[in-house]
Write a structure and sequence with these properties.
By secondary structure, this protein is of the alpha+beta class. It has 2 helices and 3 strands. β1 and β2 form a beta hairpin.
């Protein structure tokens, strides 16, 4: 069960990266809603920019619970997302 939860969060992270790259600023709200549906939270912080892209760091916080192993903790996953900020 723990592996399923971690796998689901990893999928959420990959999907978030694509969601924001495709949808730009609207993708942030979409990612927050998706994280909430998966019983997680996501936060974004500006990281850097280039001539064409804006980059943001993200952190996904999620709970791992396994009663048989007496595990109940909050874990986090960090990554980097980008989107084209300047359209040619």
């Amino acid at each position: 069960m723990i592996n399923q939860r971690v796998s689901k969060i990893n999928s959420l992270a990959r999907y978030t990266e694509s969601l924001i790259e495709i949808n730009g600023e609207e993708g942030f709200k979409m990612a927050e809603e998706l994280a909430s549906k998966n019983k997680a939270s996501i936060s974004f912080e500006y990281y850097d920019s280039t001539e064409d892209y804006l980059y943001y760091e993200y952190t996904i916080n999620y709970r791992i619970i396994a009663g048989s192993f007496k595990i109940n903790k909050i874990s986090s996953l960090e990554g980097l997302v980008r989107y084209r900020a300047y359209k040619n």
